[in-house]
Amino acid sequence: MPNITLSIPQKIYKKIKQHPEVKWSEVARKAILEYLKKLENITTTDELLEELGEDFTKELDEIDFKKSEEHYLRMREAEWKRYSTILTSS
Known about the structure:
By secondary structure, the protein is mainly α. The protein has one domain (about 20-85). The chain has five helices and no strands. The longest helix has 20 residues, at about 65-85. The radius of gyration is 18 Å and the shape is elongated. The relative contact order is 0.09.
């Protein structure tokens, strides 16, 4: 498996060192995969909405953006906490 080197601010490094139980390489790997999925989905979102049809897009437009954004951010934070505390086998 190839290796990469990351530069992080000293402040973050100190916080990381406070949690030796976390497999930080796994956290970074999952964050990179999540970001790649987002990048790959950018081009397919319009195609998906087209497939789902006008009724779905009309309902989607009626959803309050601020409220849906708040729910998304809470869900993302909960997932991040869950991923970052998963112990992997060495």
